[in-house]
Amino acid sequence: MRGTSERLNLRSMEPEELMGLMKELGQPGFRAGQLFSWLAKGTEWTGMKNIPAVLKGRLEEEYRLYRPTVIEKQDSADGTVKLLWKLWDGQSVESMLMEYGYGCTACVSTQVGCAMGCAFCASTKGGFVRDLDAGEILEQVIFTGLETGKTVSRVVLMGIGEPMANFDEVMRFLRLINAPGGVGLGMRKISLSTCGLVDGIDKLAMLNVQLTLSVSLHSAVQEVRRDLMPAARAVSLERLQRSCREYFEKTGRRISYEYAMIDRVNDSDSDARALASWVRGAGGGHVNLIRLNRISESSLQPSPESRVRRFADLLQSLGVAVTVRRRLGTDIDAACGQLRRKTDGF
Ligand code: SAH
């Protein structure tokens, strides 16, 4: 919860912790609820009308309450908005708002930079800087809504960073966003995406959180996956399959598999057959195919549309549930970490 700041992020505190704090400060218990609700609305100290000035003063001295500022905002013709935020310590992360027929989805970051090293991903090219605290993840949801004037009805943890590598803060974020009196978003409205860190998948299975788990697979061929995703060197496809199968058995929730189609790397008929067989072995699941977003740091190219179609049809004929994802925001820097990298110039 502490992040790297001397001071705790007040927005990282859960209702019962705020309750304890109010008691400690000689305040009535109901103050905790009042405060929690203001924090979730993104209200600044001056706007918290029913909180006594003395208490605000005490909290302001001891805790951090920060509104991230917008460094850059990109609007796509398809309605997708990308925001680059400046954090309290000068670091930056990205969030995105995507509009679908059923409402708006916020895609938020969980770390500054990323240590996973995926060959096709811009988030990792400058390396890992630090974890976000739970409040900083929540702030992206709150302020993306306020900056765009839209109601966020779904959240995906698919921005910069690897959520499973920041497990405790991500779990705290989930409790915070779910808690009544705050943002109040149901677990079923949340997706978490991992590059396949099995310890995290196993822990999540034990907790039986009702969110949607996405696993970035990108290849069911060991050598190909290992080259694309260095984090996969430590985890074989077989081991990953076991964790995914057990996750499904324990929670009854189907996993989504992300598969970025890369020209002549993972898009052949035999790649599709390997994928179908792997997914079956993992207890089933849903495959999301997306054409790779080109990034300047890599020569990897997206598969042609016709290849994606053929791959999807083949998967379907092999009994795998598959969706070809529309690419949103292709006229802006939509791929993970692209905007942060360009603007910070590292
Ligand atoms: N670290 C997590 C979540 C962040 S990435 C994970 O790996 O799942 C969110 C998704 O975007 C992942 O599926 C990732 O593999 C994918 N992705 C990253 N760069 C991409 C690119 N250039 N084109 C298509 N998908 C990309």
Give a quick rundown of the structure.
With about 350 residues, the protein is α/β, with parallel strands linked by helices.
Features:
alpha/beta, 11 helices, TIM Barrel, 346 residues, binds S-adenosyl-L-homocysteine
Structure description:
- The chain has 346 residues and is α/β, with parallel strands linked by helices.
- It folds into two domains: 10-53, no CATH class; 69-344, Aldolase class I (TIM Barrel).
- Helix content is 36%, strand content 20%.
- The protein has eleven helices and 14 strands.
- Strands 3-4-5-6-9-10-11-12-13-14 form a ten-stranded mixed sheet, with helices on both faces. A two-stranded parallel sheet has the order 1-2.
- The longest helix has 15 residues, at 134-148.
- The protein is globular, with a radius of gyration of 21 Å.
- It starts with 7 loop residues before the first strand and ends with a helix.
- The protein binds S-adenosyl-L-homocysteine.
- S-adenosyl-L-homocysteine (SAH) binds at residues 116, 118, 120-121, 158, 162, 193-195, 216, 258, 260, 290, 292-293, 295, 335-336.
How much is the average pLDDT?
Answer: 94
Corresponding CATH superfamily of the largest domain: Aldolase class I
- Share of helix among residues? 25-40%
**CATH fold name of the largest domain, please?**
TIM Barrel
Shape: globular
Number of strands: 14
How many DSSP H or I helices? Answer: 11
Bound molecules: S-adenosyl-L-homocysteine
Radius of gyration: 21 Å
User: Structural class per helix/strand content?
Assistant: alpha/beta
Give the end-to-end Cα distance, rounded to a whole number of Å. Answer: 28 Å
N-to-C series of helices and strands = EHHHEEEEEEEHEHEHEHHEHEHEH
Strand content: 15-25%
Largest sheet: 10 strands, mixed
CATH class identity of the largest domain: Alpha Beta
Strands across the major sheet, in which order? 3-4-5-6-9-10-11-12-13-14
Low-pLDDT windows of residues: none
